[in-house]
Amino acid sequence: MNTEEFDYFLPEERIAQTPLKDRTASRLLVLDKNTGEYKDDSFKNIKAYLKKGDCLVLNDTRVIPARLYGSKKESGGAIEFLLLHRYSTDEWEVALKPGRKAKIGAEFEFGGGKLCAEVLDILEGGNRRVRFTYDGLFENVLEELGEMPLPHYIKEKLQDKNRYQTVYSKHDGSAAAPTAGLHFTNELLDEIQKIGVKLAFLTLHVGLGTFRPVKVTDVTQHKMHSEYYTVSEETAKIVNETKASGGRVICVGTTSCRTVESASENGVLLPKSGETDIFIYPGYKFKMTDALITNFHLPKSTLVMLVSALAGKENILNAYEHAVNEKYRFFSFGDAMFIQ
Question: What domain range is 93 assigned to?
Answer without folding.
Answer: 67-145
